[in-house]
Write a structure and sequence with these properties.
By secondary structure, the protein is an alpha/beta fold. It is built from 14 helices and 17 strands. The protein folds into three domains: about 170 residues, NAD(P)-binding Rossmann-like Domain (Rossmann fold); about 160 residues, Dihydrodipicolinate Reductase, domain 2 (2-Layer Sandwich); about 80 residues, ACT domain (Alpha-Beta Plaits, 2-Layer Sandwich), CATH 3.30.70.260. Helix content is about 35%, strand content about 25%. Bound molecules: NADPH dihydro-nicotinamide-adenine-dinucleotide phosphate and L-homoserine.
């Protein structure tokens, strides 16, 4: 059989890695796919730039639309990134009857609903394994491996750059900016790294996971997003004293009131396996009603790990080229007409329930703690642990760290507003949510 002809948009970290893996493992990939896979054309912005892959035998162009409109190409692999040009190129490829593979989570989270509808109409596949958690086959696990389960919740460290920064800050005391610059050099970070540190990239990925887990449309705008730039070395140390690690977590949870969809720094008990996921590694914990808890772990970014997922998608597309489009695995796990349109709402962050870590500086004088605990008690919040750090000098502030039990976010907001109004409290109260990640 003739080889499948592939066109690649973008020859950067992931595009270069994809060419390398396809070349290095060509023989085994052919044995798995049932026919050869040949990259015939690729687009990049500047053809004079050095590449991490060989481009021998690949026709190069600076015009990505040449690839999308090339009648010889069966599969377009979009690795440019962003959601403007990538969106129009992907839509054009679909309209031209080509299958698409992409690593672009921003594109899928924001425009996946329209992209999959168009692909369905045209009978082509849009595969996006590399869009979530780099090399970990989490999309396939959720969409196929766990299809017998009702998924109750999932929680993941799904941004490699953010986890790399938190780990280096904790283990080596390095500063935020230096570690971010290194993540950029290593090709982990997004073109705009605020997507990594402010949680936008993780929210894109969480949106995709939640849709596949719960059979709901992609709703990126409804996700709550908070980044790691406010996390201090002191918070990391206090969390450790209490037996926790701070991780930047994406959480999607089905509750009776609706679905929680949130990305924020989170204290996790250090005894949980996921608390030991360090550096650029990612992990996703999924709780299904039948299987219980399952954990998926691997490299969350980088050329070869991400290429592993891209190539797996190209192989999948190749295997199903001859199958009836109506009988392929649905893009978002549930059949398109079975995706709930209205009856499951994403909860506003005010309505979620978690435990909290609170840190504040107070004047060190009698009666302060009594006033503070009265406000907390009156708000219906119960305290799990309490640490007071004595001031270093007689006139300095004392530092108080409190761990609470589960409470609704709006109750906690009210209590924090009242605490911040106390004349003895100096500055803002730092609040980090806590997840136990056990049975419920
Ligand atoms: P890079 O910046 O390394 O590569 C982007 C490539 O696109 C470059 O080769 C660039 O050309 C090319 N390009 C950009 N604009 C144009 C244009 N207008 N016309 C033609 N070519 C263009 O990005 P990554 O490889 O890191 O990321 C690609 C995608 O993969 C993104 O969606 C990203 O979110 C996703 N991703 C990245 C991961 C990673 O670890 N890096 C992991 C998982 C997903 P040139 O080289 O000439 O500038
Ligand atoms: N910038 C992303 C990360 C790339 O660091 O996780 C992988 O999606």
């Amino acid at each position: 059989m003739d080889p499948v002809k592939v066109g690649i948009l973008g020859l950067g970290t992931v595009g270069g890695g994809t060419v390398n893996v396809l070349t290095r493992n060509a023989e085994e990939i052919t044995r798995r796919a049932g026919r050869g896979i040949e990259v015939v054309q690729a687009a990049a912005r500047d053809l004079s730039q050095p590449r991490i892959c060989s481009t021998d035998g690949i026709s190069l162009t600076t015009k990505p639309e040449d690839v999308v409109n090339n009648p010889d190409i069966d599969v377009v692999v979009e690795l440019i990134g962003g959601d403007t040009l990538a969106r129009s190129l992907v839509m054009q490829a679909i309209q031209n009857g080509k299958h698409v593979v992409t690593a672009n989570k921003a594109l899928i989270a924001k425009y996946g609903n329209e992209i999959f509808a168009e692909a369905q109409k045209k009978g082509v596949m849009v595969a996006f394994e590399a869009a979530v958690a780099g090399g970990i086959p989490i999309i396939k696990a959720l969409r196929e491996g766990l299809s017998g389960n009702s998924i109750e919740w999932l929680a993941g460290i799904i941004n490699g750059t953010g986890n790399f920064i938190l780990t280096e800050m904790r283990d080596k005391g390095r500063n935020f900016e230096d570690v971010l610059a290194e993540a950029q050099r290593l090709g982990y970070a997004e073109a705009d790294p605020t997507f990594d540190v402010e949680g936008i990239d993780a929210a894109h990925k969480l949106t995709i996971l939640a849709s596949i887990a719960f059979g709901i449309p992609l709703q990126f705008d409804a996700a709550y997003t908070e980044g790691i730039s406010q996390i201090t070395r002191e918070d990391v140390n206090y969390a450790e004293e209490l037996g926790y690690r701070i991780k930047h977590l994406g959480v999607a949870k089905r509750t009776e009131a609706g679905i929680e969809l949130r990305v924020h720094p989170t204290l996790i008990p250090e005894r949980r396996l996921i608390a030991s996921v360090d550096g650029v590694m990612n992990a996703v914990l999924v709780k299904g009603d039948a299987v219980g808890s399952t954990l998926y772990y691997g490299a969350g970014a980088g050329a070869d790990p991400t290429a592993s997922a891209v190539v797996a998608d190209i192989v999948d597309v190749t295997r199903t080229l001859t199958s009836d489009p109506e009988n392929r695995v649905p893009h978002l796990a549930f059949q398109p007409d079975a995706i709930s349109q209205s009856n499951i709402q994403i909860l506003p962050i005010d309505e979620i329930h978690t435990a909290y870590y609170l840190r504040m500086d107070v004047t060190d004088k009698p009666g302060v703690l009594a006033d503070l605990t009265r406000i907390i008690g009156d708000a219906g919040i119960s305290i799990e642990a309490f640490i007071q750090k004595e001031p270093e000098t007689a006139d300095a502030d004392a530092r108080i760290i409190i761990l609470t039990h589960l409470i609704a976010e709006q109750q906690m907001n009210k209590a924090i507003t009242q605490i911040e109004k106390m004349p003895v409290i100096h500055g803002k109260v730092t609040r980090i949510r806590v997840e136990y990640l056990d049975k419920d």
